[in-house]
Design goal:
about 210 residues; about 5% helix; 2 helices; nine-stranded mixed β-sheet; mainly beta; two-stranded parallel ribbon
Length: about 210
């Protein structure tokens, strides 16, 4: 449900319950509001292109199968999704108080943070024991880069890494791009299959 517009005031959103088996949805400017989890209870993937138009307060046990989540323009605490088995998480042009907010998703395997206002110690991602693909794109206030490490990450893209990438800290790293968007950066590196890197981080629907 994308594009600009709104439902008529007298429109009965419960009509969407006829599509109760829907497992993936894209929302943009057409607002569902807090009704969304009740309308599509079997949802496994949600691509939200405009958080202001479609924000929810808390899942409270709903969407128990939600494994793929992409939020654009999100602002607030990710704890509202706590309890969902998120495996793929994309945050785009979003704001969260602290990077540790992401740690509530213990099952996350693919994480993308793009053009977000975010601060904190990025090394906390070392605690995500199932994370295999990571992209951090855009300038931010993250610190602790020298302590970021993972025994399982295979795909890595960081647009503004202020130090040299230590390969010893990523023993299973296969495909990576570091500082490719900063010309003549002394810490620029790339390696592996960049096509595989792009595909691993291209969509929550894969």
């Amino acid at each position: 449900m994308s594009g600009s517009g709104a439902f008529a005031k007298d429109f009965d959103l419960d009509r969407f319950k006829r599509f109760g088996s829907v497992k993936a949805i894209t929302t943009q400017d057409v607002p569902f509001g807090d009704a969304l989890p009740d309308l599509f209870p079997q949802l496994e993937a949600w691509l939200n292109l405009d958080w202001k138009a479609n924000k929810i307060k808390a899942l409270n046990g709903k969407w128990p199968n939600l494994a793929n989540l992409s939020l654009q323009g999100f602002s607030g605490s990710l704890s509202i999704f706590e309890g969902a088995p998120i495996k793929r998480l994309f945050l785009i042009a979003s704001t969260i108080k602290d990077v540790e907010d992401i740690l509530c998703f213990k099952e996350v395997e693919v994480l993308q943070i793009s053009s977000c206002k975010i601060a904190g110690d990025v090394s906390v991602f070392s605690k995500l024991k199932k994370l295999r693909s990571l992209r951090i794109y855009g300038k931010n206030k993250l610190e602790g880069w020298e302590n970021l490490k993972s025994d399982i990450v295979q795909n890595l893209e960081i647009s503004h890494l202020p130090c040299k990438l230590s390969k010893e800290d990523f023993p299973k790293l296969r495909n990576y791009v570091i500082n490719a968007y900063r010309p003549r950066d002394p810490f620029y590196e790339e390696g592996g299959d960049l096509g595989k890197l792009g595909r691993a981080l291209s969509s929550i629907f894969d």
